[in-house]
UniProtKB/TrEMBL annotation:
InterPro entries assigned to the protein according to its UniProt record, in alphabetical order: RibonucZ/Hydroxyglut_hydro
Region described as Disordered: 321-344
PANTHER family xrefs: METALLO-BETA-LACTAMASE FAMILY PROTEIN (PTHR42773:SF1), METALLO-BETA-LACTAMASE-RELATED (PTHR42773)
Name of the protein in question: Uncharacterized protein
Database matches in Pfam families: Fer4_13
Superkingdom of this protein's organism: Eukaryota
Signal peptide: none
Length: 344
C-alpha cells in the first residue's frame, strides 16, 4: 500500500477530501462530475505492524501513546484517519505515523460538541479499535481498582447504545444542509455522513447526498458504501424514507466493498461505476462490478470545452456534453430540465 500522506490536510480521508469529494463527484441538482485527474493524495497505509500481530490471534492491546482516560485506541487500528476526521481535538496520528491515538479525552459537559464528535469517531471506526474502559473491564484487570466517578460518567456518555445514556445515535451526521426557497416551494439539498466505515474499503468515508431533480422530484445518492448492517440501514432510511437511496456512486475500485449487499437490500438501487476501473485495474477481481446499472466511460478528452476539468454525466450515465450538443442541433426534444442538465 502507498505510504502515508505527509500532509494531514490533503490526506486520503482528510477534511479537504471529506468536504470536496461528494461535491466534486456529485451535484445534488444536476449531473455527476468525475475528475479527469485525481486531486486526492495517495491513501495512507492502513495496516500497522501491531494490527497485523493482532490479526494473528493476539488479544488487542491499548496503544501506549493514548493519554490516560477511559477512551483509547488499541492495536487493531488500521490508521484510516476516520477518527481524526470526526474528532480532531480528541484523536491524532501517533508519533510513528502507524496508527491513531487519543491525545485528549472528550469533555463530558459538551454533549453536542466535543463529546458528540468523539462518539461519531467511535461509531465510524471500521475495525472497532476505539474502545471505552468501563468499571467491569478495569476490575477484571486490577481487582478492586475502580474508575473515578468522573470517568464512569464519561464512559456512560460515550456509549453508542441510546438506552445507556439517552443520547442520539451518531449517524447520519450532517455535513451540508441547505434549503433555497423558490416560487414553487423550497428546494433543499444536503450531504450527510453515514458512518459505519468499512474495513474492506480501507475506512473510506461514505456519504448520502439528497436533492431534487429537474422535475422537482427528490433524488438521493449514496457516495461509496458503509458496512451493510441493521444500524447503517436505519441511518440511510432515516434520510431517504422506506424506498432507500436511488443511486450508489462507487468512486473508485478500492471503495466498492459491500455494493452487492446494498443492491440486494434495495433492489431498485442503481450502482454508478466507471469502466476505467475494470479489467486490469480491477485488482479485487470483483466481476459483479461489470453489471453496474450505470457504467460510465470516457475521460475529459481533447474535445472538452476550454477550462472544463471534469467529464460530466447525468445520473443515468448520459454524456452531458453530447446531450447539450444534440439539443443545440435540435436532435433531442426532451424537457431541458428533466435530467438536471438545464439550458445551455
Amino acid at each position: 500500500l502507498p505510504s502515508p500522506s505527509p500532509s494531514p490536510l490533503f490526506g486520503y480521508n482528510s477534511p479537504m477530501r471529506v468536504i470536496l469529494s461528494p461535491l466534486l463527484a456529485f451535484l445534488p441538482v444536476g449531473p455527476v462530475a468525475a475528475a479527469a485527474a485525481s486531486f486526492v493524495t495517495t491513501r495512507p497505509s492502513t495496516r500497522s505492524a501491531s494490527a497485523a500481530r493482532t490479526s494473528l490471534g493476539a488479544a488487542p492491546q491499548r496503544l501506549e501513546e493514548n493519554v490516560e482516560g477511559v477512551l483509547y485506541v488499541n492495536d487493531r487500528c488500521i490508521n484510516c484517519a476516520a477518527c481524526s476526521n470526526f474528532a480532531p481535538e480528541t484523536f491524532a496520528r501517533s508519533s510513528t505515523d502507524s496508527s491513531h491515538v487519543v491525545y485528549s479525552q472528550p469533555d463530558p459537559s459538551d454533549a453536542s460538541g466535543n463529546l458528540a464528535r468523539a462518539r461519531a469517531a467511535l461509531a465510524a471506526c471500521p475495525v472497532a479499535a476505539i474502545r471505552v474502559e468501563n468499571t467491569a473491564g478495569k476490575n477484571h484487570k486490577n481487582k478492586g481498582d475502580r474508575l473515578s466517578e468522573e470517568d464512569e460518567r464519561l464512559a456512560k456518555l460515550l456509549a453508542i447504545n441510546v438506552k445507556s445514556n439517552g443520547l442520539e445515535v451518531p449517524f447520519p451526521r450532517p455535513l451540508i444542509d441547505r434549503g433555497d426557497g423558490g416560487g414553487g416551494g423550497a428546494r433543499t439539498s444536503a450531504v450527510h455522513y453515514l458512518g459505519h466505515h468499512n474495513e474492506k474499503s480501507f475506512g473510506a468515508t461514505p456519504y448520502l447526498v439528497t436533492g431534487m431533480d429537474g422535475r422537482g422530484a427528490s433524488v438521493s445518492v449514496m457516495v461509496d458504501a458503509p458496512k451493510c448492517t441493521p444500524s447503517s440501514i436505519r441511518a440511510v432510511l432515516s434520510l431517504t424514507g422506506p424506498s432507500g437511496p436511488d443511486y450508489l456512486l462507487l468512486t473508485h475500485i478500492d471503495d466498492t466493498a459491500g455494493h452487492l449487499q446494498w443492491r440486494e437490500t434495495f433492489p431498485n438501487l442503481k450502482r454508478i461505476f466507471h469502466g476505467g476501473d475494470l479489467g486490469r485495474y480491477n485488482w479485487l477481481n470483483d466481476e459483479s462490478l461489470e453489471d453496474a446499472e450505470v457504467l460510465l466511460s470516457g475521460t475529459t478528452g481533447e474535445d472538452a470545452p476550454e477550462g472544463q476539468l471534469f467529464k460530466m454525466w447525468t445520473l443515468d450515465g448520459e454524456d452531458v456534453q453530447d446531450l447539450r450538443q444534440r439539443r443545440r442541433r435540435g436532435d433531442d426534444d426532451g424537457d431541458s430540465d428533466s435530467d438536471g442538465v438545464g439550458g445551455d
